[in-house]
């Protein structure tokens, strides 16, 4: 058996610190095979390079795995320092100077551009897709002195139910993330059956939902609460509210377990109403992130969202009735965007009362997406165009600078309308300074004040 150092290379802390769940799951799989694990988080502590050198020297790993969560921050208005991979490149060079151990890359960002990232960063191997089984097999192959391909691909949707490992939590990491963001991440299912034109989830996790056993999720929640004193969780599923309703069964299990946990998740604004939201709220739902993405039916269709803006309004009204704070995310300038759809979209955003809106300019292009193929068809890039540095899709039918000025002007009259995205960072940083943690929508949106005013009038 080998000694394996796993590294979370993510340095992003905006909009909040995110527990390295992928590293914890891989650590669990390797531990079950009998390997000795050390989990290293780049964010935790000062002097990253010195901490990493000291860890390598003391632990003396046989293999080093690096989990790459982000390529960039998908914000076209950011400065150049939003690009991440130069950090991983320096990290691999540092590792090479400390040990001869093979370096293995993985994670969501790596899986999106594996060949390009492996070549740029200079590691030895890479794992594409969910890595629990593949990385164990790779290490066994290398332990036995056999050759292995530099990039290994997970078969589409290969793991089912109990085969998906629970995270191997690390106490000091949990304490750090709870102190910073107030929450820890957990996954209840993998995959995504939807076809949003910009999204890589279906190619990374498969085109259907694969659910973890509800008992396993409850066990994780109980362990987080009883062993680590965690009371707030974010479910990182691509979409929490699956059309088959298994998310409601999980909510029932949480209620029956007696756990007093607060949780949030990503939601699709379709097929869910007040009755379902009330049930989720009883199980601990306190805030939501909503993948609305476009502001009118025309651009929703161009992004292949599969629902209408009327669905979004109905969903938002149900959230208001249930008093659950929500944040909608929008992409302006995407496929089909025109001056007409821009103005219609901004008008529609004004209909989303009691919600926070985060708006982005342009859509990051990645291989394996419909947006990538569309950009090639429209001559905006070629199949040989490099995508390691961020490339954004903008509709040829709209002037980008005029669009950005229009969005920023409209956002000034809406307290919860965040544009450009850096404005959100400043607001959240200010709220963190005041001691607030978590998603913070519950601090930015108030239902009780309005209710109190109504009572006073009566």
Summarize the SSE layout with pairings.
Blueprint (H helix, E strand, L loop, with lengths): L2 E6 L12 H12 L3 E6 L6 H12 L3 E5 L17 H14 L4 E4 L1 H5 L1 H8 L3 E4 L3 H12 L7 E3 L17 H10 L3 E3 L2 E2 L10 H5 L4 E2 L2 H13 L5 E4 L10 H12 L4 E6 L6 H10 L1 E9 L3 H6 L6 H14 L3 E7 L6 H11 L6 E6 L1 E2 L5 H8 L14 E2 L6 H12 L5 E2 L2 H13 L7 H4 L3 H10 L1
Parallel strand pairs: 1-2, 1-3, 3-4, 4-5, 5-6, 7-10, 10-11, 11-12, 12-13, 13-14, 14-17
Antiparallel strand pairs: 8-9, 15-16
Helix pairs in contact: 1-6, 2-3, 9-10, 10-11, 11-13
Q: What does the average pLDDT come to?
A: 93
Radius of gyration (CA) equals 22 Å
The helix content, as a percent range, equals 40-55%
Largest sheet: 7 strands, parallel
What are the low-pLDDT stretches, counting only 5+ consecutive residues below 50? 450-458
Number of strands: 17
CA distance, first residue to last residue: 72 Å
The largest sheet has its strands arranged as: 7-10-11-12-13-14-17
**What is the tally of helical segments?**
19
């Amino acid at each position: 058996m080998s000694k394996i150092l796993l590294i979370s290379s993510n340095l992003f802390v905006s909009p909040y610190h995110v527990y390295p769940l992928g590293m914890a799951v891989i650590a669990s799989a390797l531990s079950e095979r009998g390997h000795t694990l050390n989990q290293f988080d780049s964010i935790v502590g000062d002097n990253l390079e010195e901490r990493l050198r000291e860890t390598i020297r003391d632990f003396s790993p046989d293999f080093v795995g690096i989990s790459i969560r982000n390529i960039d921050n998908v914000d076209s208005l950011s400065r150049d320092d939003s690009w991440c991979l130069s950090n991983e490149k320096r990290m691999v060079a540092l590792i090479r100077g400390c040990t001869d151990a093979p370096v293995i890359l993985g994670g969501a960002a790596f899986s999106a551009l594996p060949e390009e990232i492996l070549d740029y960063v200079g590691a030895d191997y890479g794992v594409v897709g969910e890595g629990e089984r593949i990385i164990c097999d790779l290490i066994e192959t290398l332990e036995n002195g056999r050759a292995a391909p530099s990039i290994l691909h997970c078969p589409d949707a290969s793991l089912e139910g109990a085969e998906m490992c629970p995270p191997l939590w690390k106490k000091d990491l949990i304490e750090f993330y709870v102190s910073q963001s107030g929450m820890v991440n957990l996954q209840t299912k993998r995959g995504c059956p939807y076809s949003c034109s910009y999204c890589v989830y279906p190619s990374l996790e498969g085109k259907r939902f694969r659910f973890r056993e509800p008992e396993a999720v409850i066990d994780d929640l109980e362990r987080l609460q009883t062993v680590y004193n965690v009371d707030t969780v974010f479910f990182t599923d691509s979409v929490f509210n699956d059309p088959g309703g298994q998310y409601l069964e999980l909510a029932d299990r949480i209620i029956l377990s007696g756990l007093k946990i607060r949780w949030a998740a990503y939601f699709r604004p379709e097929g869910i109403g007040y009755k379902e939201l009330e049930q989720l709220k009883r199980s601990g739902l306190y805030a939501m992130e909503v993948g609305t993405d476009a502001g009118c039916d025309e651009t929703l269709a161009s992004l292949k969202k599969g629902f209408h803006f009327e669905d979004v309004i109905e969903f938002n009204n149900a959230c208001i009735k249930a008093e659950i704070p929500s944040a909608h995310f929008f992409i302006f300038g995407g496929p089909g965007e025109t001056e007409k759809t821009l103005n219609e979209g901004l008008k529609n955003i004004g209909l989303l009362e009691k919600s926070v809106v985060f708006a982005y300019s342009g859509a990051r292009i990645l291989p394996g997406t419909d947006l990538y193929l569309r950009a090639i068809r429209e001559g905006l890039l070629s199949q040989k165009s490099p995508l390691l540095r961020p490339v954004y899709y903008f509709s040829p039918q709209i002037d980008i600078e005029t669009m950005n000025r229009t969005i920023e002007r409209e956002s000034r009259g809406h307290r919860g309308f965040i544009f450009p995205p850096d404005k959100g960072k400043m607001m959240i940083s200010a709220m963190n300074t005041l001691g607030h943690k978590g998603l913070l929508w519950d601090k930015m949106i108030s239902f009780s004040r309005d209710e109190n005013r109504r009572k006073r009038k009566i």
